[in-house]
Amino acid sequence: MKDKIIGFAWQHFLLLLSMFFMTLGVALCVRSNLGSGVISSIPMSFSLAGEAALAPGWTIGGYTNIMNILLVVAQILVLRRRFEPIQLFQLLVGFVFGCLLDVNMWLTSFLSTYATLPAQIIAQLAGATILGSAVALEIRCGSVTMPGEGIQVAIACVTGRPFPIVKIAVDTLLVMLAVISGFCFFGTWPWTVVGPGTLFAMFYVGYVVKLVNPHLEWFDRLLDYRPGFRRYIYGLARFIYPKEQW
User: Fold this and answer.
1) Backbone φ and ψ of 136, nearest 5°
2) DSSP secondary structure letter of residue 228
3) Measuring CA to CA, which residue among 75, 26, 42 is closest to residue 171?
4) What CA–CA distances, in Å, run from 170 to 39, 79, 107, 139, 185?
């Protein structure tokens, strides 16, 4: 029992680190002003509307939390009796994600003063790369999915459609809703919310996940590690690096 508790805590500590870097990637994409990532497009639209006193003045993380709750409710409606209670853990994971997003929006706030196009492109590229790499780590952690992924899995399960097709359809719907909300709030296309960077991130993040995924053996060994009361750092290092590399 003790080993299981330690293993569960360690698994979700690594998940927390993965989510921190995921939200860092999202924040960098937002700061690029070339278009946010798909999952943050609607929260960003409402957050900007809040700054203009056109909606409640919540942060992008706060609106992300609201959206995650709605996505979990949508899963319940889609799956009905097939919805597993353990998936309610998505609510906690989604809440932590929203809080970490606000933290990283604060940490990257200085980037808003560098509005040149080269800086914007670098921020978008760096953000999408970090996001894709962190998503690969998050998947490796083997916990519940994020609410945005959960609704895609639920729809694919019920309709029998291939997951990649469902993902494209859901992502497209979220982007369309972000554009519609922009027109409703500002009367124009919200280019800083849904721009060329959004289209770039839709394809590039998936490419990074596929590129990084085959090279995560070290992370698998890290997941298998069980922290204890060891005082020496080599105890952890030997789980990360194979014995042959010593």
Assistant:
1) -60, -40
2) -
3) 42
4) 10, 16, 30, 19, 22
Neighbours of 82 (CB within 10 A): 11
CA 136 – CA 221 distance, rounded (Å): 15
What's the longest Cα–Cα distance across the chain?
Answer: 62
Render pLDDT for 115-145 as a digit per residue (tens, 0 to 9). 788 889 999 999 999 999 998 888 888 777 8
| Cβ-based burial of 210 (10 A; exposed 0-12, middle 13-18, buried ≥19) | exposed
- What is the pTM assigned to this prediction? 0.85
Give residue limits of the domains in the chain.
2-215
Query: Which secondary structure element, helix H or strand E, spans residue 133, and what is its range?
Result: helix 117-140
- Alpha-carbon gap, residue 202 to 174, rounded angstroms: 12
CA 203 to chain centre: 15
Distance (Å, whole) CA 246 – CA 241: 8
Answer whether 104's CB lies under 8 Å from 24's CB: yes
